Amino acid sequence: MGYAALRKARELTQVELAEKLGINQASVSAIENNSDLLLSTLAKYIRAMGGEIEIRAVFPEATFNLEPLPPAAPRERPAAAGRSKSKTSSAA
């Protein structure tokens, strides 16, 4: 099942899912049309619909359930190069 079909089965529009993800509708469309997603992006997409990702490694002799992906932690943006967080004042 494709991502868009899954979203539709969950009775969500791209706009509704975008609101849950904190992104715009065009970004949801890009996710749904991308054949090479990061697992973290896919996990966020599925969690926004109320689901969880399960990953299995399937071999002829056995199947292994892999550890679930932890919830994504918010990323900190690095400070711009050459900028200082503290301001200094000079006496005249």
Task: Please summarize what this structure is.
This protein is mainly alpha-helical and 92 residues long. The chain has helices spanning 3-9, 14-21, 25-32, 39-48; strands spanning 56-58, 63-65.
Give structural notes:
The chain has 92 residues and is mainly alpha-helical. The protein has a domain at 3-65: lambda repressor-like DNA-binding domains (434 Repressor (Amino-terminal Domain), Orthogonal Bundle), CATH 1.10.260. 36% of the residues lie in helices and 7% in strands. It is built from four helices and two strands; from the N terminus they run H-H-H-H-E-E. The chain has helices spanning 3-9, 14-21, 25-32, 39-48, and strands at 56-58, 63-65. The chain has a two-stranded antiparallel sheet with strand order 1-2. Helix 2 crosses helix 3 (25-32). The radius of gyration is 20 Å and the shape is globular. The termini are far apart.
